[in-house]
Amino acid sequence: MRAFAGYLILMLAMPLAAIAVVLPANVYRAQGIAAPDCDGPAQVLIFAVPAVLIYGAGALLAYRAGRRFHRLVSVLCLVIALAAVPNIAEALHELYRNAADGECRG
To answer: CA angle, corner 64, sides to 62 and 65, nearest 5?
Structure first.
């Protein structure tokens, strides 16, 4: 029953992970416009950080279970978590770029 609850959490977090991987840190630069996007990096971090935490914990817990199926789930969770990490790095880079340029002051 406990494993079922864990897999249910991973399945329910799948849309969160998909948004975390696909969402660009700067929507304007993704469209080819050289303009700052002041709320873009925060939107990426809101989705990406929980996705990395959920799937990182899922990878660790599934790996510790030890069976072959759990090891496969662990690898899949690790791939999903690592897929969101470059987007987090890009969002942080965009935040620092906006702060250095003096743009997006609240």
So the answer is: 65
- Please answer whether residues 90 and 44 qualify as being in contact, where contact means their C-beta atoms are separated by less than 8 angstroms: yes
End-to-end, the C-alpha distance of the chain in Å comes to 47
Q: Both tokens of residue 98?
A: 């906006």
| Environment class of 87 (CB within 10 Å of its CB; exposed 0-12, middle 13-18, buried 19+) | buried
The pTM of the full predicted model, rounded to 2 decimals, is 0.86
**For the segment 37-79, what is each residue's pLDDT rounded down to a tens digit?**
878 788 899 999 999 999 999 999 888 887 888 899 999 999 9
